Amino acid sequence: MYAIVVGGGKVGYHITKALLQKEYEVTLIERDRDLEAHLAKEFGDNFFLGDGCDPQVLEETGINRANVLIAATGDDQDNLVVCEIALRHFKVPQVIARVVDPKNKKIYQKMGIELTVDATAIVTNLIE
């Protein structure tokens, strides 16, 4: 299985690390040059510096053969765009989006992005 993770912050970093430990083929895409040295050192060839919202970057990382794309940035708009491009343009079989602001979950669902992770809702439900 080949997975692309967009967003190299804490969430994307740990998802990438966990998938690699399970011996999946993974590419982590991050656009922040300040994170480049750390992520390149940690993930080597599994790291790509670029904007995951850019279809050319997604092509360069092999999205045409990806089984899953995980949009794990800290920005709902970027996550939505990445998932839309993956679903509509590249026909990636499965996309998973991190939801930062719970009020945006309905937007994802309206756009056909059914697999979302909303940490706020999860924690709230656990408390209840």
Please describe what this structure looks like.
This protein is of the alpha/beta class. Helix content is 45%, strand content 21%. It has helices at residues 10-21, 33-43, 55-60, 76-89, 105-110, 119-127; strands spanning 2-6, 25-30, 47-49, 68-71, 94-99, 116-118. It has a six-stranded parallel sheet, with helices on both faces. The longest helix is centred in the middle third of the chain and has 14 residues, at 76-89. 35% of the residues are buried.
Largest sheet: 6 strands, parallel
**Mean pLDDT, rounded to whole units?**
95
Strand content: 15-25%
The number of helical elements comes to: 6
Computed over alpha carbons, the radius of gyration is 14 Å
Question: What's the shape?
Answer: globular
Give the helix proportion (percent range).
40-55%
Query: Which structural class matches the secondary elements?
Result: alpha/beta
Strands, count: 6
What are the low-pLDDT stretches, counting only 5+ consecutive residues below 50? none
Describe the strand arrangement of the main beta sheet, using strand numbers: 3-2-1-4-5-6
Multimeric organization: single chain
* Termini gap: 36 Å
Q: Summarize the helix and strand pattern as letters.
A: EHEHEHEHEHEH
